[in-house]
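Quick entry between incubations.
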Amino acid sequence: MQLERMVNKTIVREGVFDANDALAQMNRERFDRAGTFVVNMMSSPGAGKTSILERTLERLRGRLRLGILEGDVQTTLDADRLERFGVPIAQVNTDPGFGGECHLDANMVRFGLAGLPLDDIDTLIIENVGNLVCPAEFKVGEDMRVMVFSVTEGEDKPLKYPLMFRSVELVLVNKIDLLPHLEVDLAQFERNLDAVNPGVERIFMSAHAGQGVEKWCEWLLARQRKMAAAP
Amino acid sequence: MQLERMVNKTIVREGVFDANDALAQMNRERFDRAGTFVVNMMSSPGAGKTSILERTLERLRGRLRLGILEGDVQTTLDADRLERFGVPIAQVNTDPGFGGECHLDANMVRFGLAGLPLDDIDTLIIENVGNLVCPAEFKVGEDMRVMVFSVTEGEDKPLKYPLMFRSVELVLVNKIDLLPHLEVDLAQFERNLDAVNPGVERIFMSAHAGQGVEKWCEWLLARQRKMAAAP
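Done. Structure below.
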């Protein structure tokens, strides 16, 4: 019963992922033509993605032409928070019906790109739906994947959601200002992280208190410089 | 294009939900025969479900025959944490393949029930996969749905994940010991919660510091008494 079920599921899902990969490739070609570096930012709900983007836009305004693609099940709350920075923002709501999709896929991103002047954007940050499982399964045409992990979630999370932690090039370990009030074991978190994604780059930060924000902005600028220098 | 996509998706998903509802009904009948009250507990990753269960088992041992069904993408870490209480625990891993399903469905719960002595369990708590979207879409045969919301996630979450907040009978508002260190607006959270699920019952608690744990245990005991008194 279990095996049969899994086999059927595998067949169906292969079809879904083939279509998604083809659309992700179309997005990729658009990004390449525009010379836009694209980050797919993922996390649990409430880990701090939007707060980090606020700090990023404050700091990089005038140094890097940023654009934002906001993915949410419902509302434009995150886009509203970022609007005051005057950068191009597109909102994609993953939709009504059955309560909304739990991730962005390549087609949703393609749809959102229609609202963005890609030629005027050096770095596009895609803020995915808050979820530690499904977003990691869908390529959207990004150059790099970054996840935000809030230390309030506990040190065991890399082991419990390994695909997410394994699929990223950088982990922003956020809310470290709360560490004195938590029982979380940060050294054990790092061991768990290395168990699923050995040596993956990590930046300890607090969007609230400001630690690490400059380092993250430097990371973005360095990627941009590297891309600009490529033939 | 968008409409066509949605129509296709709707058709496929209706099939999935029909099958799930039929299996949920089978689970429901098993629970009724055993006289077991069943709670489906949901939340974001790291909101504190397992910590709340630890406090619950400590307090209700000897007063209520509890059983636990643990749903995780991978690992048995949560079941391992609860094992020392000596209550029946079944583990369902939602599994490999494409990184694991992001929710428990009725068939996974049915599978897990094979490992539980339902006749000896008054109240079964199903700890769902950490995710604020998909678990709310799948009935598993439960009597009641409870969600754990961590105040660290921010006051906007009911608006951003309305199906989850709307689908539950009780919200455990956890980690309130951290409130002095956060910028979260709890009154606004309550207004947002009431906007999507007017007047839904809520218990403010801290599994870490102990506030509200007794109230939650009383809630469970009262449901059990009510069920036992029913004809």
